[in-house]
Design brief:
Length: 131
């Protein structure tokens, strides 16, 4: 099975760009634009990894992270951010985000990070995704 990625970002253009690039690489990608929507999606579907924007209207990335971890504690979540303000650094250290990716980012590096976190099981040809 292909790796199923949940992209959570309030920028619809970025979501479309990342979705297109990752789908061309063999991933299944779902996008939502708010933290609340991410928690709903996680409770309804199985995902292998989450790409979570830090700053969004309504529920931000840190709050959504906490909500997701209550539902799926082992799900890897990558923080995606344009900047990491000093007041967030301490909170970040207290969480277990799998990685941080700074915007703008290189899609190839994003794919590499996803493959590393998901065990390199990108598609169904000769591999079985766990979980």
């Amino acid at each position: 099975m292909p790796i199923h990625v949940l992209m959570v970002d309030d920028d619809p253009e970025l979501c479309e760009e990342v979705m297109g690039a990752l789908e061309c690489t063999g991933y299944k990608v779902s996008c939502v634009h708010r933290g609340e929507e991410a928690i709903q999606a996680i409770s309804k579907e199985d995902f292998d990894i989450v790409l979570m924007d830090l700053k969004m209207p309504g529920m931000g990335g840190l709050e959504a992270f906490e909500g997701i971890k209550k539902i799926k504690p082992l799900l890897p979540i990558i923080m995606v951010t344009g900047a990491l303000p000093s007041e967030v650094v301490e909170k970040f250290r207290k969480t277990d985000f799998a990685a941080v990716i700074y915007k703008p980012f290189d899609i190839e590096k994003l794919v590499e990070g996803i493959e590393n976190l998901a065990g390199g099981e990108k598609n169904s040809e000769g591999s079985k995704a766990s979980g």
